[in-house]
Design brief:
Blueprint lengths: L5 E5 L3 H12 L3 E5 L7 H5 L3 E2 L3 H5 L4 E4 L4 H9 L13 E4 L5 H15 L2 E4 L2 E2 L1 H7 L2 E6 L2 H6 L1 H7 E8 L3 H29 L4 H9 L6 H12 L8 H17 L5 H18 L7 H8 L4
Parallel strand pairs: 1-2, 1-4, 2-3, 4-5, 5-6, 8-9
Antiparallel strand pairs: 7-8
Helix pairs in contact: 1-6, 9-11, 9-12, 9-13, 9-14, 10-11, 12-13
Protein name: NAD(P)-dependent oxidoreductase
Keywords: NAD, Oxidoreductase, Signal
InterPro entries: 3-OH-isobutyrate_DH-rel_CS, 6-PGluconate_DH-like_C_sf, 6PGD_dom2, 6PGDH_NADP-bd, HIBADH-like_NADP-bd, HIBADH-related, NAD(P)-bd_dom_sf
Amino acid sequence: MTPPARLAFIGLGVMGASMAANLGRAGFGLAVHNRSRGKAAALEEAGATWAATPAEATRGAAAIALCLPDTPDVEAVLFGPGGVAEALAPGMVVVDFSSIAASATAGFARRLREERCAFLLDSPVSGGPAGARDGTLTCMVGGEAEAFEAAQAVFAAVGRSVTHLGPAGAGQVCKSANQLIISGTMQVVFEALALGRKAGLDPEAMRQALLGGSARSAVLEAHARRHIEGATQPGFRAELMRKDMRLALGAVRDHGVFAPGTAMAAQMLEALVNSGRGGKDSSALGELVAELSGLT
C-alpha cells in the first residue's frame, strides 16, 4: 500500500475530493467513484480513472478508501449491488474515513472478515475542509493492528495526527467524543458571548481577552470568530454536526454513560437545524443562542 500502487477512492464530497487529491499528489494511482461524476472532474483531469461502480473501482486496487455521509451509505457501498465486497480479494484493506455509527462499523468489519477475509479500518477525521485540503487531518483509527500498519502511507498522505485506538469501531467512538466536545464547547462559548453583549461588552475584545487565559480553546479561536464576523458559509454544515451528535447520543447510550451535556448539545443542534440553519456552518449555533437571548 505504497505509491505508486493504485487505490480506489469512493465518495468525493468536500472532504473526500480533497483527500483523494492528496493521495494522488503523494504518488498513488487513483480509481474514483461518486454518485455524481461531475465531482470527479478535477481528479480525472489530474490522472484519476473513473469507475462506474464501487466494485469496478476496487478491482485491481491495493486498498479502498471511503468518505461517505452516513451509515446507510457506507453499508450500500460495501455490500449493495455493485459494491466493494463483490471485488475484494483476501487480505485487502478498506479504510473508511466516514463518520458513522460505531456499532454498525464493528458489524461491517466482522462481515468483511468472515465473508471476504478482508479488513476494515474505521478512520473518521477531524480538521474540516481546510485540513482535508492541506493534508493535516486528525485520523482516529479502529481496526486490526496489522491492517493499520499496512495502511501507513495512506494515512500519511491525508493526515498529520494518526492514532490507532483499538478494534473496529474505536475510531468512531473517538470521533463521537470529538464532536460532543466541540458541540458542548460551542454552546457555552456562545452563551458567554451573549452574556458579554447583553452587558455591553464588545464581543471581539471579549474573545481576545478570553483567549489569553485558561478559557482558550479551538472553538473560541475559530468558531467564535466566525460567529462574530457573521461568516455562516459552511465549513462544516450544521446538519452534518446534528448527524454526528445523533451518533454521539447512540454511543453514550450503547455504553451506558451518564451524559446530560451530550444530550443538551444534541438538542441544540436539533433546534439549530429546525430553525432553518441546517445549511449554514455549525457556528450558526451562535445566532440561535443570541436570538434566544433577545439579541439581534
